[in-house]
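Homework help board

Subject: predicted structure for assignment chain

Our instructor gave us this sequence and asked us to write out the predicted structure in token form, then describe one feature. I got the tokens but I'm not sure how to describe them. Can anyone check?
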Amino acid sequence: MTQRNLWLRAVGFMLATLLLAVACAWLLFGRGRSPVQTDLLAMLPATERNPLAEVAAQRLAHANGNRVILLAANKDDEQAKAAARELGQLLAKDKVFASVTAELPPFDLQQLFAPYLQHRFSLLTEADRQALAQPGYDPRQALAQHINEPFVTGVGTRLQDDPFGWLQHWLEQQPWSRSPLLPEDNLLTAHRDDGSYVLVTATLSGSAYDDGIQRRALAVLDQAEHSIEHDHPGTRVLRTGALFYAATARGDAERDVHRVGLISTLGIALLLLLVFRSPRPLLLAFLSTAIGIVAATTVSVLVFGQIYLLTLVFGAALLGEAVDYSIQYLTARANAGSNWNPGQGLRQVRPALLLALGTSLLGYALLGLVPFPALRQMACFAMVGMVVACLSVFFLLPALLQTPAKPLTHVSVRGALVLQSAISRCVAGRRGILLGAMSLLLALPGWLQMHHDDDVHLLISPPSTLVAQEKQIRDVTGLGNSTQFYLVQGANEEQVLQREEALEQRLQAMTDAGQLQGWVGLAGMVPSLQRQQANQALIAPLFAQAGRTHQWLHEAGFRDADIDRLLQAWPGTPLHLQAWLKTPAATPFRYLWMGDEASGGAASLVLPQGDASNTALQQAAANLPGVTLVDKAAGVSQLFGRYRRYASLWLLAAVLLIVPVFGWRYGWRSMPSVLAPPVLGIGFTLAVLGYLHHALTLFHWMALMLVLGVGANYAVFLREGEPHVTHRPGAMYASVLLSAATALLSFGLLAFSSMPALQDFGLTLLLGIGFTALLVPASTASRISLS
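My token output:
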């Protein structure tokens, strides 16, 4: 290949790279919003067979996604209320919050619930229903009992409007009546032994997952909290909301990217300088890798529309593998000495690079088969980055590396030769068989101790302070949504409400047994028309004999005008769901109604409250038509478990796919020795994880896929390169060790990531790559001498 052709190819490649860089910059910074996705829910796969269940899970998760919940807590009630007022005023001054609610506008609770009076004869609690259905029911006793009940301080009905107390009993069972938060001095306040807690809520003006919104909102909140604690000594501000989790996740990911990227970059730079003794190979190796990462980022954002936190950190670690292709070409140049020819050098390394690229792509392609958006994006990112980094070696480096280079340092080559010779001697003949048997015996106890844990919560590790504050806020206020809910579907809203009522009977039994704290559902607030008609039928006998009822009420002390008004109100009107959804009382619960989103039907959500087991909740929905328990976390965990069980088969399939390729390239007799290092590296890695009592997850097995691909690369590099460096034994293994060291400096650092999933990934790669690099000399057919 002529020098002119080399430069033409290089210029064309650089123009394409420039276009990629411009596209990448525009995607990241030119669209007015960051494509970095900090919503952890978005990284999770779809788990429900029912599409509406997935819609409901997303809807429920984001129902309060842009809302911030704060509690001003102080032992002194006045201080807590004053702090809450000031906190609301401070937050309302900044436009990052679309609305802030601390003080409530003055209103009359009686007026808020007065509309229920026209439906009073249709609304009965289960206890009143059962009492009215009894043959010996005595209305006069119920009347006397209600007249003598203690004075109601909360939401109460007037005695003359509800003499038997049926509506009062029904109102007392509504969610707004059971809330620990009560309006005091126009503030929602809860009292506990350790003091008063006053609620302040705020709604962001944008998405909680937007970087700019996060930074502004947190700055305002931190400044306001500092001011509150200064002005009102003893006050604590508790906080929860998606904003805080998203900001923490983003911050952790940024620190991981900076740490992994900085340490791996510095470490790789130092290694390349020590081995090649020139800054030029260092700069070209990083250029090749940077082009691959830019291309990977651009394609990932184009394909997925966003880039996940896992992918960002993983991309920083990709540096150590992408640089391998450059290292092999640079090594070929260093070993050629004065006989260096860039075209000939390219032809020398091309088979090894293509074979190595193929094995790596195989591992990442299998990773992309998992229906997990984050893993698929990581696979896409890696595959594009690997391909482009390899193409840069083919199209760019030959033009930039025309002149000969210094040979590899004598220390690196000599050290690699000593290690290679020692390992070759250990694995040769009977000594190798004995050592192999001993290694398997040592590994066996570790394999026997392997166990698995598929809990999706291992994917993330939110700060304990945030988790503790959220739990305390839930305990104090009762606010907050669970990841578990029931999806109730029917042909129309009436059927949905009837099915909810059947479910609620079972949930009530669980509540009575102490298995559940309660639930929130629409049927408890708006009974089905069938239930309302049945309620009226139970009350009807009292109004069928109006004269007798009039006499009872008159004897109890009611005025005739009030009695006549009550009798004339019978039978009232039924309460319709659509009309109720438009009332102020329905505002906090509208998200429970899914409307007609289901094809040809309707649906609603029922939220169980408490810590009931998934099994108990499943039993509550058993054999109820149209009722499905949706547990996003459990569903993802089950999916992880299923694919984790498949992973060993995928790994075996990957090995079987490599076998014919290596058999064709190196011969069937030599194929086992070339494949042995990565396979044994995987086996020893699993043994160490067993000894460490490390619960295996899907991420461990996905990392083992990459160990197979990367380990096979090292065997290929050594096998393909040694015939070209017979004049300098050890030089090829030195380049393999250099590649392994760069991978360990990048992928291995993931073991110290703040994300548990990446910790599993990094630890597995750290062990697997380390074992494989040490075992690679076993793949060479001939003995190595120290001469």
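Reply (TA_rk): Your tokens look well-formed. For the description, you could write something like this. Residues 479 and 618 are 23 Å apart (CA to CA). That's the kind of observation they're looking for.
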